């Protein structure tokens, strides 16, 4: 939706594209798409200089507006820029924003203050580079990573913003009119002015806006539709008055006034005259006038701004560093207290704080950040989840601790492709494998009858019993199929296929050129099925319908009345007259709950409806009633009278229709299935076994959502479903909540309206009950409600949430969740672009969580604790050294050794823990219960942290006291002795921690050891700084040095190896049973 530079396009023929005829106008092209407030882009990527009329509006409250058409003198309309912007920063806020996000972490801020303190001479302990180089490296890695992600995000947004649309312009007039062709997405909120469809209407696909699978019928403004050509829109003087921008996607109030007619024409505008951004034109080509753009779009107002997400793991690590800081302060105070606060003790406290600063490891942040990059790379490279993209590399550990998964339905769990699965006639049912029998019944009916005769099979003399039974069944099947072929709102449309043009195809009823259009994909599936068994809908207009039989005979029917489907009535009806016989028939189909009281008594309807519903099929009950001419005339008179009523019109109309809806003949049940995405059922079962509760949030109808929940096994066969009835006030909500409280192990189905009432009055009680349910289905949800549910789950449970969706209506939910996953669907990439992770199919979510999420969390937990252990060891040694030497604030090791210790000597082995795994990926997928262990956060807890602290104190003390004890006579070599033991201890501890060896781990261990040995030889002046003779290089080669270092290292590590063996032997972890 980014308005871009203009390029002239060729004029197109026909009344819709006659824009160039003698008007000085042209069809130019613009490049729109998406939300936000970045600069408009042309196809060259430069800011557009020609869109003055689309400059960003000033601030202030939204207010009603008037859009002037054909008034060159009134060009003061200003529109927000119409572009997508999923970036977290812009050019000016990038560096401040990144630095702020880094220094709000406690330990980053701590190290900044620490480095700054070295500019004060009294506090300086070593060279400045020992403090500034590590901090600069950490910040550089972070800034580079964020910059790469922002550039990738900008490139993705620019690709979408540069989509091209045709527009109708005249010199001296702002470019308000857009052409949008079939299957194109609407780039801005518009008023519908013209269509190329003969019936004067068009269908919209809105599933990316509201989640509903039904197509919506839209009507153009009547006076502009009557204009001869689209170019005439530039010649009329008119204006559109519209309400202020708001979030309501289901309502609109406005007027269209044409001033140059006599008298002026004024038409009211409603939701039927709108084309909201994000919807897709399903039929024909339309012309619209831009009403709202940018941040004023309905779709944008229903989404939230992208935010920087901070993972729970990072917050936990931040909390541990605060504890370490507390320990640092305590140790420093103890050291000064043991000196009896002598002299300038406050400076001594600061020097000890600096001396023991290694207690908080600066390398922790950079190790974790680089680990995240590795996890992201591994996810992208996984061949079993191809096409997966990591858009936010800062939160991969979140994937390993998800407690609630909130998923969209349409396009995420389902393909939005309806398939006819079952026809039930009471005594016999036909499935997909027996549809050829239905076809043979239809064929037998129409091959027995001549074109001039009735469709009922003629009586034959002396038939056998078999023939009579066969004919009776054929007649029943025929009546059912004919009812399905007639009772609908489907229109066949013919398009050119390159061989046959449109007019010829429509005249010949060409099968290859025909497509069906309807507001509901269910109805299209039913009509496609009747075509497959031999009865084809070939033509339809406002007053007639044509069916073609297997013998190519055309059956003509006059449409007398249509009673459309509504959410209240849950049924639709049609009255038709057969032109060949004059018979009038009233056909009706609807939900079993309402049709049960309309059809004649039977003993199978309720049972079979229940059976089909349990299979996840969407069931419709089809019935008919024959009407005499007098009976219909009487009904029509009463119906017309009711429609003319001023008071209680809808009630009176419903009463008249209900007078016909009695004792109808039950013909059949139909079962239609919304095709699920591949492997949805096993994926949901895996997530359930992993301890993840799945909630389905959809904008679709209650019945549709319930059927999909059953079909996908979101609700298991042995679970009851509690459908929360519609409530409008506090007392009704109270009663319904009490009724629901009495249910146990029961899935909840609730509509958005009832949810809003419950959250208004009983938010805590409702969330408490809902969180206890094994599954929750929220239908008719707005995008804002989806985000609200995510937020409430986070606040009430404190657990991590993951939101999965594929449409623009899921963006708010995805951005609000702790971990957002976008599915790249057929209907655009809005959700995918806004998500933290993008997948191509829902089934990939299982592996993303069970394997990559689990590994990322466990690896980061081990890595963080080991880095803390590494720093605590050397800090403990410093504490022992200072204690022995009269609490002097003198560093044990030079700055070079401190940096080398946490980089070249131990970095590679420690960082290789990001390649460790406790079980193979196949085992993690086979036993999702392993994931459940992570939900308690045991890999990184206060208990494990305390264990590593005790290990660090034990090993640091052992190495330092061992060095002082065994090398008392060679005290000048204390640095070389203790440092060597420390390096060997760290390398052995890494080997102790690893559970599955990778060849890179072995390389890292050997490489680090080789680096240290080389530095002993070539950099001995740093390691043996106390020696004045410089003979360390000879000393470290002696047998005495080697065996004493070996003893110290053995004493520090051997007890831990023994404890690990005993723990594995007597209290093995759950995963070890699967690896043995």
From TrEMBL:
Membrane-spanning segments: 315-339, 345-364, 867-887, 893-915, 945-965, 971-992, 999-1020, 1032-1059
Q: Where is this region: Disordered?
A: 1-25
Give the Gene3D superfamilies listed for this entry: Calcium-transporting ATPase, cytoplasmic domain N, Calcium-transporting ATPase, cytoplasmic transduction domain A, HAD superfamily/HAD-like
Q: Which UniProt keywords apply?
A: ATP-binding, Golgi apparatus, Lipid transport, Magnesium, Membrane, Metal-binding, Nucleotide-binding, Translocase, Transmembrane, Transmembrane helix, Transport
Entry keyword Membrane: yes
The residues listed in the UniProt record as binding Mg(2+), with positions renumbered to this chain, are 408, 410, 806, 810
CDD domains (UniProt xref): P-type_ATPase_APLT_Neo1-like
**Which Pfam families does the UniProt record give?**
Hydrolase, PhoLip_ATPase_C, PhoLip_ATPase_N
Cofactors required: Mg(2+)
Q: Where in the cell is it found?
A: Golgi apparatus, trans-Golgi network membrane; Membrane
Which annotated residues bind ATP? 408-410, 523, 565, 589, 618, 698-700, 780, 786, 809-810
SUPFAM superfamilies noted in UniProt: Calcium ATPase, transduction domain A (SSF81653), Calcium ATPase, transmembrane domain M (SSF81665), HAD-like (SSF56784), Metal cation-transporting ATPase, ATP-binding domain N (SSF81660)
One GO-annotated biological process of the protein: phospholipid translocation
Q: What class of enzyme is it?
A: translocase
Q: Where is the P-type ATPase N-terminal domain?
A: 72-132
Q: Which residues form the P-type ATPase C-terminal domain?
A: 833-1068
One GO CC term of this entry?
A: plasma membrane
Q: Which InterPro entries match?
A: ATPase_P-typ_cyto_dom_N (IPR023299), ATPase_P-typ_P_site (IPR018303), ATPase_P-typ_TM_dom_sf (IPR023298), ATPase_P-typ_transduc_dom_A_sf (IPR008250), HAD-like_sf (IPR036412), HAD_sf (IPR023214), P-type_ATPase_IV (IPR006539), P-type_ATPase_N (IPR032631)
- EC number(s)? 7.6.2.1
Q: How does it sit in the membrane?
A: Multi-pass membrane protein
Query: Which family does the record assign?
Result: Belongs to the cation transport ATPase (P-type) (TC 3.A.3) family. Type IV subfamily.
Name assigned to this protein: Phospholipid-transporting ATPase
